[in-house]
Amino acid sequence: MTPRRRLADALRTAVGLAAVGDFDDAAAARAAALVEDLNASLAAAARHAAPPPFTAAGFFDGEFRTTTSPVTGVCNPLAPPLHIGNVDGAAGAPREVAGQVSFGKAYEGVPNCVHGGVIAQTLDELLGASNQAAGTVGMTVQMTVRYRKPTPAGVPLRLEARCTRRDGRKLHSWAAIRHGEDITAEAEGVFIEVTPQQFEAIARACTPQAGTPGAA
Known about the structure:
Elements: H1 3-20, H2 25-45, H3 56-60, H4 63-67, E1 83-87, E2 96-101, H5 116-133, E3 138-147, E4 157-167, E5 170-179, E6 182-193, H6 196-205
Antiparallel strand pairs: 1-2, 2-4, 3-6, 4-5, 5-6
């Protein structure tokens, strides 16, 4: 395990404990002080004052999805993370996506059930991954989610997705979350294919300018 992944795993555990732990004020204050010291240490050790400029190469080859994505990135402590990979589809069909995840307490909505917004985020990521498995990348235009049953937290869940058809630049995809053999939630999405050059232009246009509230 790389040091960055070890750090993310430790922070992910801390987030889960902070979300649901029943601490007294003294314990919470001690933990807050430790985290504040950690933040100062990480900020001082960072090699860049701000993230390096975005390039589409890492996104298109899947590096972003496996490292820093807020859903599947093993180095992002916000990610559960989902573990997904490509599998062969039916004869003549594009490759599909399959995987698994278990959501901790920090991702609950109704107690013991995964939050509906987390489910939607997960399905959006799966839809995008299925497009990538089919050899292209797009941005979400529309996504319809059907919540069929409560999705339990803290148990293994199966994930699946496939790009179902293409209409010019429009990509149509389907994804589902399963508990056992039951589909708990599924989604259909429409994406617009985007080139590497277009992705880089979008990233530049959305980069906060110096002096903008919230900019680094």
